[in-house]
Write a structure and sequence with these properties.
Four copies of one chain form a homotetramer. Chain A is of the alpha+beta class. Helices cover 25% and strands 21% of the residues of chain A. Chain A has a five-stranded antiparallel beta sheet, with helices on one face. The first copy, chain A, has a five-stranded antiparallel beta sheet with strand order 9-8-10-16-11. In chain A, strands 5-6 form a two-stranded antiparallel ribbon. In chain A, a hairpin with a 5-residue loop joins strand 12 and strand 13. At the A-B interface, strand 1, helix 3, helix 6, strand 11 and helix 7 of A face strand 1, helix 3, helix 6, strand 11 and helix 7 of B.
Chain lengths: 377, 377, 377, 377
C-alpha cells in the first residue's frame, strides 16, 4: 500500500536506496519450471548500467544481480525470486548541501513534506538507481513471456526525440539502436543528438527525451476492461519511471486531431482467420484489451534536474538561497530510460498474461476463431 | 483482479452493462460521520448526463442515483456505500448487425478475443455508460476531500482542444465553462468548436478532444514513491476512461523539449513558510508526490468510433464486410469526458489522502514546517 | 481495505445493512461462458432463509436474488455479476432501546468505539443478514467449481454439536441432513437437540453449535504456501462468519494430543497413480496445499447473544443499566451457519482454483503423475 | 497473489528457502521517523533461534538480521525495510532419499502436485525456517505498536498444552515463561513436559502443542467488520504458521457449549468512562472489532512430522515404500511456535492500527467517549 509493489499476479516488490548497502526486489508469482539464472538477467542490466558512455553518469556500478531464492537446479520453483544488487560506488561525498537545500525539479521538498525526514544520500529512494531493479524484474518477466507467449513476443524500445529534436521515422532501423549510445534507430539523428547533448553539457544544462516501446506478438485478449485496462496499466507503469511527464498509446495526443474515419483502424481478412488491420492508430489496444497488433507506447522524460546552472531555492530553514548540482549525472536521463521502459512493458504483459489465464484459461497464441460460415438458406 | 475496482483505501467497485437493468458501484473505505445524501451526488451526475445538448447522445437517462447502504440518518457509517442507477432508455433496438460485425475502433473484436462471447447491446460493459458510476463515486470522494482537506481543495476540468482546434489560454475564464455546451473556458473558441462539430456531424464523422483537469489546494505530501506515484495513479485513472489515448502532467510531452533550467521550477519564500514556486512545469508533482502546487493533468480523447461513414471490417465468420453505425452517439465523446476526468481526479486524491493518513498520520492542510533558523555561530 | 471484499481472483464485494432497502454483492472474476441464472442461486438461498422452522428467526424474507449484470443470454460474460436482495420484512420496530444501550455479546460497543456512530436497526452491518450475500456469492462459486473441477467436487455441511451435545459419528448419514431442521446427519441426535433447543428458548436462553464442512473431490495442489495457505484462507473465511469463535482443520485441536506416528497420514498406491491415504488427520491439506483428500473444516458458533434473560450493561451515557433482547431471533444461530459455511468453502476453493490456474496453468482433475519407473541398472 | 505477502497496509513480503543462501523479507508501510536498528530485532530472533536447548533442532544458526534499506541515521524513512538473514548451517547432507519419497505429514506430495517440482533441501520453502522472517517482521511491527498505541500494548505467548498434557491455569505465572525451555507459565507442568518430551524423543516420536497468545492494551475499534475482522485475520495469521491445525479466540470451541447468558460478557462502568467487562469469553473481539479487553488467541500445533519411526509412503515413481526421517528436528515444533505466534499477533495489530487510522483517523489510546448525560426533563 506504500507503493513499492508493482503488478497483481506477477508482482515485483522493490526496496533500497541509492547509497544504501544494496537494492533489490522480490518477484512473486513466477510460474514454476522456467529455466532461470543470473545469465538471463545480466544482459538487460548491462544495457541500463551507468558509466558506459560519456552521455551517462560516471558512477561505476557493475550491477551484478544475485538470485537468492526461488530457483532450484536451474529452474524456478514457483516460490518468490529474491534479487539483490549491491551498491558499490557510493562515493564518499559530502551531502551536507543537498541535505539542507531543496533541489528544484527534484523530489527533495516533496519527500520532506510527506515524511518529515529523508535520506539525502544520492536522492535516497527517489534516485533513478531504483530503476535497476525494474530491469532485473523485467528480465524475469521476459522468461515468463517467452514461455507462455512464445518467441514471437518481442519487446523493443528506442529514443525517438532528444530535446526538441525528433528522429525521421522513414529512416527507422531497429539495427541502429545498438550502434549508438542513444538507443536511436535513426543513425543520422543520432549524430545530431550527440552534438546537442555535448552542447547542453558544456552549458551546465540538460535535455529531455521521448521514448517509444513496441511489443510485437502480443496475443489478443490481454487487459481487463474498465479500470485495469492494458493501456491504463501501461500508462501507470511508464509514468512511474523517474522524470516521466507524459504517456501515450498508438496515435496518442495526435488522435485528438484525427477524424473518426481516420482514427478507426479498418480490418480485412488476414492469415489463419486472424484479422489484418489497415492501420494502427489504436496502438494495439481497444477497449483496454489487446487486439493482436503491435502494442505501441511512448513516454516523455523531462530534462535532468541535476544541473550545474544555479537555480533559486529554499533551504530547510525557509531561507532563500541558490543551488548548483555538481557531480556525476546523466545530461539526458531519458537515454537510460529506454531499457527501463522495455522492462515495465514486460512486467505489465506478464502480469496480464497470468490474469487472462486465471479468468479465461487461455493465453499465448490465442487467436480469435472465426465461426464456421452459416448454412445457406 | 478482473479490473472492476479502482483505488486501494478509498475503493470503488463498478458493475453493469449499457443495456442491462441498472449500473452501479460499491464505494468502500468511506470515513464515518460524513454527511451524504443523493443530493450531494446528483448535481455531478447531471453535468455528465446524456441528452442535454445536440452535441451529445440523445439517449434520455435521468441518471438518478439511489444510495442503498452505508448511510444512517444522513451520515456515512463507515460501511460500504452502494449506489444504483437504473437504465431507463434501453431503446428496443435491433442489435443483430453489431452482434455479427466488429466495429472498427470499438472493443468488439477485443472482447470477442478475450472472452469468446460478448454482450453487444449498446456496447455492453465497454460502453461509456459505465462512466456514470465513476461520476457517482467521484461525488462521494469529493465529500471525503471536503472533510479531510477542507474547502480549499477544488477540482475543475475543461476542454482545451476539440479536433485540431485549441483554445487560447490567454482568454481562459473558468466562469465560461458552464456557459457553453463544451466545458470550454474560452468563449471565442467555443463558438468555433460549435461550427466544427456541426460540420463533422453532417459528414457522418466525429472529433477528438483534449481535456485538462486542475486540482487546487492539494496538500503537499500525497502520493507514494516508486510505483504508486500520484502522477502514475492519475495516468492510470485518466487512461482508463473510454477512448483516452494519452495522459500528461504539467508540461507533459512539451517537457521533453525544455532545457533543464527552464524545467526546474524555482522556489522562493511564500506565505506561512510555504514555498512559492516561480513556475509549474511539474504540474504539482515531484518524485510522484504532491508539492502543494496545482495538480494539472491533461488527457486526449480519440474521435467517437461510432460514425455514419462506412468502414471496412470483418464479421464473426471472418468474412469481409462494411459497417456504418447509426443511432444516438456523441459526435465528440470527449465533451462528456470532462466531468468524468474530474471524478477520477477526486477518486485518486481521496485514496491518497487516506493512504497518507494511514502511514504518516498527517493530512489535510499539512505544510512543510521550516526549521527554526540555526543559531549564529 | 475496509474489509468488505473477500477473495483475490474470485472476489465478492458485499454491501448492505439489515434494515436498509436491500443487501447485495458484486462478484468479480467469474470466468466467461458459464451458464448462470437466478435459478442456480435460489435453492442455496432457500436453505439459509429465515422463518422456515420454529428454530430460526420468524423474520419473513423471501430472499429473492436478482442478477443485475454480468450475464447475457444465460451465460456469464466475464464482467462483474451484481446480485441484489431486497429487504422486505423490516418490521417497524422501536430501536430506541438498543440505540441507547450496548447489548452484551453484540458488536454495539465495538462499532461505537470504531466509528463513533452506528446504525442500530437490526444490528445494521453487523447483522447475520449479511450472510445471505455470502450464500448468493457461494452459489456463483459453485458454478465455477462445477465447470473447472467437475461434478466430483462436492461441498456439504452438517451440524455436529448443539450446545454441549455432540452427534454420534457412527450414525452419520448425509441423507439425514435435509430431514431435520438442524442439518444434523444423526437422526437420533437431532431429536435430542430439538428438546434442548426448546428448553433453551423457554428459558430465554440460547445455544451454541459446531459445524463441519466437507469438500470432496478437491484437486491436489490448491493453496499458496506460506501465508495464503488453503487452510489459512479457510480459517479466515469461517472465522469471518458472525459469532464464530474457533476453526480447525482435520484432526484440529485434537492433533496436539496425537503422537507423531498417529498424526502422519500414511500413503499407499491407489487408483490411476493417485496415492491412497490411510487416514486423514490432515483434513486434506499439507503445507497449506490440498492433497486430493477430503478437505474437512469445523467451526464453533457461540450461543446467540440476543436473549430474553436480562444482562447488565452500560448505556451511551456510561450509566449502568440492564438489557433484555426481545424480538425475533434464532435461539441457535449456528443452525443457519451451515449453508453459510458451505458457501465460504465454495468461495475459497473457487478463488484458489483460479490462482492455481494463473500461476501453474493446471486445474481441475489435476493428478500427480508418477514418474515412469527408472530403468533397471 | 502467490501468497508470500502478509498484511495490507503494514505488509511483509517473505522470500527464501531453508537451504538457500539466505532468507528475508521486505516490510512495507512502516511509518517514518521510528527509531529502528538491528538491536530492536535481534532479541526476538534469539527467542526463536534453533539450537538453544536439547528440545529444539540442533541446527546452528546465529540468525543475525541485517537491515538493508528504509532506515537513515537510526530512523525509519517511510520506505521499505529490507531484512536479510543468511543461512549458515546448511549441512551438506544427502537429500536423495527425501527427494525421491514423499514424507507423510509433510508438504512433499502437495508441493509436487502443485508445482510439478520442488526444492527438497531441508523442506525448501515449506520449512519452518521461514518463520524466522515472521519474527523479524514482527519486531518491526512492535516498533509501530509502541509508537502508535503506547507501552500499554503488550504481546505475550505461552505454551498451554504439550501433547495431551495441559497446564494448570491456577498456577499461571508469566515470569515462569522465560525460566523453562517450553515458554510454559506453570513451572510444575514444565517439569512433566520435560519428561514426556524426552520419552517421545527416545521413541523416535514427537508431540504436539497448544499455544496461547495474549495482547493487552489493544485499543478498542481495531478490525474491519464482515470479512477482515480482527479475529478472522488472526485466524489466518495463526493458521498460516507451519503445522497449525486449529485456532480459537476467547472461549473458542468451548463457547459452543455455553449458555447465552454465560457467553455474553456483561459490562459495568469502569475507569475514565471505559467499560469494565465482567468476563472475557469474547477474547477481546466482538463483531470482528476489538473491545479494549485482552485479545486472546490459541492455536494447536500438530506433532512434528519428521520422526524416526518408519512410516509407509510412496516414491516419485508411485512405488510403495517406507521412510524414517533422521536428522536434526524439533521433537515438539510447537515450542518455537510461541515467538512466531507473538510475531503474527504483532503483524496483525500493526496492520489494523494503520487501517483504522486510514479510515477513521483515530488510533492508539482511543476510548469510547460516554455522551454527557441527557438533561433532566
Amino acid at each position: 500500500m506504500s507503493g513499492n509493489g508493482f503488478g497483481e499476479l506477477f508482482r515485483l516488490t522493490s526496496w533500497g536506496e541509492s547509497h544504501g548497502p544494496a537494492i533489490g526486489c522480490v518477484v512473486d508469482g513466477v510460474p514454476p519450471g522456467l529455466t532461470l539464472s543470473e545469465a538471463d538477467i545480466q544482459p538487460w542490466m548491462d544495457r541500463r548500467r551507468p558509466g558506459q558512455s560519456r552521455y551517462t553518469t560516471q558512477r561505476r556500478e557493475p550491477d551484478e544481480v544475485r538470485i537468492l531464492s526461488g530457483v532450484f537446479e536451474g529452474r524456478t520453483t514457483g516460490t518468490p525470486v529474491s534479487l539483490l544488487i549491491e551498491n558499490q560506488d557510493q562515493r564518499s561525498k559530502d551531502y551536507s548541501e543537498i541535505a539542507q537545500k531543496f533541489r528544484p525539479g527534484h523530489a527533495d521538498y516533496a519527500y520532506w513534506s510527506k515524511y518529515g525526514l529523508r535520506d539525502p544520500r544520492g536522492g535516497g529512494r527517489s534516485s533513478a538507481r531504483e530503476t535497476a531493479v525494474r530491469v532485473a524484474g523485467g528480465a524475469v518477466a521476459r522468461r515468463v513471456l517467452a514461455d507462455l507467449a512464445g518467441p514471437g513476443l518481442r519487446i523493443r524500445g528506442a529514443l525517438v526525440q532528444m530535446g526538441p529534436y525528433r528522429l525521421d521515422r522513414d529512416r527507422w532501423d531497429w539495427n541502429e539502436v545498438d550502434r549508438n549510445p542513444f538507443f536511436c534507430p535513426d543513425a543520422a539523428a543520432a549524430e545530431g543528438w550527440a552534438s546537442a547533448l555535448e552542447a547542453a553539457r558544456k552549458d551546465g544544462s540538460s535535455l529531455g527525451a521521448v521514448i517509444e516501446v513496441v511489443a510485437e506478438g502480443v496475443p489478443a485478449g490481454l487487459g481487463e476492461p474498465v479500470y485495469d485496462r492494458l493501456d491504463a496499466d501501461l500508462a501507470k507503469a511508464m509514468m512511474s519511471i523517474n522524470a516521466v511527464k507524459g504517456v501515450e498509446v498508438g496515435a496518442g495526443f495526435a488522435a485528438a486531431a484525427l477524424s473518426g474515419e481516420a482514427n478507426a483502424d479498418e480490418m480485412r481478412a488476414g492469415n489463419e482467420g486472424r484479422p489484418r488491420f489497415l492501420s494502427n492508430q489504436a496502438g494495439g489496444i481497444l477497449g483496454g484489451i489487446s487486439t493482436g497488433q503491435d502494442v505501441v507506447v511512448r513516454f516523455a522524460v523531462k530534462p535532468t534536474s541535476s544541473i550545474l546552472a544555479p537555480r533559486r531555492t529554499l533551504d530547510r530553514f525557509g531561507r532563500e538561497t541558490e543551488i548548483s548540482t555538481k557531480g556525476r549525472h546523466d545530461p539526458c536521463v531519458g537515454i537510460r530510460a529506454v531499457p527501463v521502459g522495455e522492462a515495465m512493458m514486460a512486467l505489465v504483459l506478464a502480469d496480464h498474461l497470468l490474469r487472462q489465464r486465471a479468468q479465461v484459461g487461455a493465453w499465448g497464441n490465442r487467436l480469435w476463431d472465426p465461426l464456421p460460415p452459416p448454412a445457406e438458406s
